[in-house]
Amino acid sequence: MANKTKDYLTKVRKKTGFSDYKISQEYGINQSNLSKYKSGKSALSETHAWLFADILNINPAEVVANTKLEHAKMKGDKPKAIFWQEQLENLSSTSESIKIDIAQINPIVGDLNNNAQQIIDLSVKATQQDTDLLIFPELSLTGYLPEDLLLRAGFIQQVEEVVNKIKNAIPETIAIIFGAPHQQAGHLYNAAYLVQAQAIQIYHKQQLPNYSVFDEKRYFSAGSEPFVFTIKGQRIGLLVCADIWNADTVSETVKYGVSSIISINASPFHMGKHQRRLEEVKKRVLENQVEFIYVNLVGGQDEIVFDGGSFAMNAKAQITHQLPFFEATTASLATPQDPVQEESIEKTIYDALVLATKDYIEKNGVFNGVVIGLSGGIDSALTLAIAADAIGPENIKAIMMPYTYTSNMSLEDAKAQASTMNIDYQEISIHTMVESFNTQLSGVFSGMQADTTEENLQARVRGTLLMAVSNKLEKIVLTTGNKSEMAVGYATLYGDMSGGFAPLKDVSKTMVYRLAKYRNTQSYIIPGRVIDREPSAELAPDQVDQDSLPPYDELDAILELFIEQRLSVKEIVKQGFNQQIVERISRLVLNNEYKRRQSAPGPKISQNAFGKERRYPMTSKFKP
After folding, report:
1. Options 4, 205, 509, 604, the catalytic residue
2. Verdict on whether the full-model pTM lies above 0.90
3. Catalytic residue, candidates 62, 70, 138, 216
4. Any catalytic annotation for residue 80?
5. 273 a catalytic residue
6. pLDDT, tens digit, for every residue of 47-80?
7. CB neighbour list of residue 529: distance below 8 Å, 6 or more residues apart
């Protein structure tokens, strides 16, 4: 029985989508021969073996050897059967080892020429180091995600031109894989390009994510065919990101006789994400008994930050190579690697915030640095540390804007931190400005009691000053508010919410304290009193945050359940929280959606950040 022949025919049917009749017509195969192949009564002729190998992108020597072996067995020619069995074993044992390198790069969205040049330069360098295959991440040519740039015909045309530039510039001795859009027959695909011997082969991503920050179905059509290529006698399957989360997509690729799978990815960071990747890849490895190479993008893109962390895993689901997080780098899988130590969650989040802030400022290329309102409180202290680590203290201006309720402790601590960090620091009293506003408004507010209006006025004066300094010095204002405050609206529109980027936007207040303590273990820059004192906006006499909010550990626990886990009030109360407090907090979250819509962008680090992935109506009567 010619089982290999039947198997090859089945794969040809699957890949082409043709019926047997259509195959016979399309490829000039006699229908009677095809019937024999289908029944297993005849092995492929050598001509058809070469044809099927070409259709399936399989090493022709392997198909011919299998065909000759089946012919010999069916004729009872034992010497020939032994000979061709030996040839197959030789093919398997003599496949050369492949030197594979990973290029974990940080592209800029839309910067096609510079992204392409980076791919070319790294490919030339890898060639000099005898690399056989160099792998870049998903959409590494365009950056992830170009969003509605993908709807512009001119952008897609530029992509096609730059792809050809890469193909022509790559040395013939190296193969490379990179991600870019591919337009075909009126459809746009999220594609992986293989450049090998100065020829291009293309794989279309099959699983298109359309949840969280992803919106790929808006832009791309889904592919339907597995992709396998051969290099130095070894067959390798190629997938793109979300494909690996679908067991069937992986198993279909493995059916084509691959020894390893390469997945190129643009997988965004959030807490716990890398562990989820490892667990998912381990499942695919153990299900299919294949090696796995996972190549991920790195860098900040608006509200998303990609953490890199590319890795290789053997067929026993053991990690053999782990690349750094939040760092653009190239590494060779031919070089053994010591086990990587697991990093603390505080270090991971802090590194994510630093990279996101750095890339937002530098990739936009329109700011000379940063200006921060330094209040002497924990949020602005941590924001200052992040900014300095991102772009250097020499590029930062810190401004303390005291008023009547600003404590001496705040003044001392703000000045001390700026001095320790060698930050350009200045104090601007806002007393006369606030009083001038109050005087002008006294007629309008006649007979009314002072309330949060007067408190917010202080914040808005400070916001105006910071924006003026921003305009004059061409430095971006970093907003210092955190997720807990933004969730319940404990922030002033056009006041402390003023700014162009918010590093702590997705960081809870309790995590702010943890990150400040972590940063001080690297070098002591945040005064201890800033961390130890009760948090206060200092907008009223003896004011502390807990005058109007529950303790932050309680508040953050409720917010975690309500926002990230999307639990109802009843479900949260069942976990031991006071019903009135939970109802009040959930109401504040929903009622302040209009404020968050006007807030600065900031990096996503949680599973449900205030940004593009969380789309709640501003006008709603929903009661959770």
Report:
1. 205
2. no
3. 138
4. no
5. no
6. 887 788 878 877 777 787 888 888 888 888 888 8
7. 409, 413
